[in-house]
Write a structure and sequence with these properties.
The protein is an all-alpha fold. It has nine helices and two strands; from the N terminus they run ααααααββααα. The radius of gyration is 19 Å and the shape is globular.
């Protein structure tokens, strides 16, 4: 075992976790800061993965980034209509721009731009929305359950994983690992429900916590698989090297990108019933 690599991995992981904890505990200002930082880094990383990060493509990359940030602030209660209109205007300009760039494959360029808005912009926008209609600390709760799920899946999958979960996309994932992560999360749900439920704004109804657990585990796993599908198509092992020992920012937030929209729908459902 390479101790140096292990220490680097642990250190970079701790910094990543500290940023999330610090921002989510800061309140709405921290949520916006987290979105600006992670969404911006993820957008640039995705553009690089798709071969768009060059001086020639800089105006289009900036338009994509502007669109992601406009979506991020679309649920700002002080100016929601203005930011949403800004996003629409940016998307119009982005489409028109393809008429003048003389690309060999404008459809691929537009598809990449649209995917960035859907895959990166929307989840972070819904992160802000969820924190607004609930409390900012609920975003920390989402990350905690994603981390517990990853830990449980890794431990159980490493020990007894034999049946492949989705071999075509991610050969290392197993059904045993999936259920291991789910069991770890259910255990955490009971702990949080009966010990610190009010801290995260949830009621002490264990079934609400079980529902949260299912949402995070299932959609978090799908989110991980979707990023694996993208990397397999692009023939890369990691999305980047921003976080030493962990890969790129997309490698760290892949589960979040799909579980966040699902968590938003769940929180809205709880507010309605």
């Amino acid at each position: 075992m390479d101790i140096k690599k292990l220490l680097i991995r642990a250190g970079s992981g701790l910094i990543y976790v500290a940023i999330i904890i610090g921002c989510t505990l800061w309140g709405m200002n921290g949520i916006y800061l987290l979105g600006i930082l992670f969404a911006g880094l993820a957008t640039i990383e995705f553009e690089k993965l798709c071969g768009n990060l060059s001086l020639r493509n800089l105006p289009l990359v900036l338009l994509d980034l502007a669109g992601v940030y406009a979506l991020l602030f679309a649920f700002n209660p002080t100016a929601p209509i203005i930011t949403l209109c800004a996003w629409v205007a940016i998307m119009i300009v982005r489409m028109i721009s393809e008429l003048y760039t003389k690309r060999e494959n404008p459809l691929r360029s537009l598809a990449t731009s649209a995917l960035i808005q859907l895959y990166i912009g929307l989840p972070f926008s819904l992160m802000v929305a969820t924190a607004t209609i609930s409390i900012p600390k609920i975003i920390l709760l989402l990350f905690i359950f994603l981390w517990i799920n990853d830990t449980g899946a890794y431990i159980v999958g490493s020990l007894i994983g034999k049946h492949k979960l989705f071999e075509r996309v991610s050969p290392k994932k197993s059904w045993e690992g999936f259920f291991g992560g789910l069991i770890f999360n259910i255990g955490a749900a009971f702990l949080f429900c009966y010990c610190i439920n009010s801290y995260f704004g949830f009621h002490s109804n264990i079934w609400i916590w079980i529902g949260w657990t299912l949402i995070v585990t299932i959609f978090g796993t799908w989110g991980d698989l979707i990023e694996s599908l993208i990397k397999r198509f692009l023939n890369v092992k990691d999305s980047g090297n921003l976080i030493p020992g962990h890969g790129g920012i997309l490698d760290r937030i892949d589960s979040f990108l799909l579980s966040m929209p699902a968590a938003f729908l769940y929180v809205v459902y709880l507010l309605i019933i």
